[in-house]
Amino acid sequence: MAVYNVWDVPQGGPTRYSQTKLETRYRLTRPGEWFVDPVVYLEAKKEWTEDKPIGVEGKLILGKDIGPLNVSLNGSAEQEFIPGGGRAYEYAYALGSSYELSPWLRAGGEVFGFQTRQGGTSETTHYAGPALSLSWSRFWLVTALGVGLNDAAERVRATAVFAIQL
To answer: Number of H helices and number of E strands within the chain?
Structure first.
């Protein structure tokens, strides 16, 4: 189980604290027992910058390590509970691959996208780009850059996750 604190850096704006997340993962099998290594992921979150309602997300992660090569497919469904009984939904996917260049460095790429639905409106976005992962001791940093592939997508979407394993 982990608690995440999320900061956003909007283009042209100041860095701001945006979300608190509580998440957990459960591995269904030991690595290598099945053709793929499945993991179930559950998350509850609260976004503060737009005072959004509490959201819950479920995700299925399928991964396979073949020597230094990793291939992963993630699918997720998220639901936000809007005051007054409304709901908003987001479905997402990510398909990626990375290669271990050294024990502390992985490089790869991914294709990912989102579909959001609220009321009678829906929007779908798709991205593709490189990813880089660095790890040392109990620390790791993952960065990814996605270039928008359709008109609804932002031109560029960048993410970075820094973690400390306690």
So the answer is: 0, 10
Position 30 scores a pLDDT of: 92
Cβ 38 vs Cβ 25: under 8 Å: no
Query: Which tokens is 3 given?
Result: 């608690």
Q: Name every residue whose Cβ is closer than 8 Å to that of residue 38 and which is 6 or more positions away in sequence.
A: 27, 28, 29, 60, 61, 62
Summarised one tens digit per residue, pLDDT across range 29-62 is 998 899 999 999 999 998 887 777 889 999 999 9
The residue ranges of every structural domain in the chain are 2-164
The one-letter amino acid at 139: F
Please return the burial class of 18, using the count of CB atoms within 10 Å of its CB with bins 0-12, 13-18 and 19+.
middle
pTM of the full predicted structure? 0.81
Is the CA virtual torsion 152, 154, 155, 158 positive or negative?
Answer: negative
Buried b / exposed e across 81-109, counting CB within 10 Å, b at 16+?
A: eeeeeeebebebebbbebebeeeeebebb
Distance of CA 3 to the CA centre of its chain: 15
In order of 16, 75, 77, 112, the CA distances from 52 in angstroms are 15, 23, 17, 24
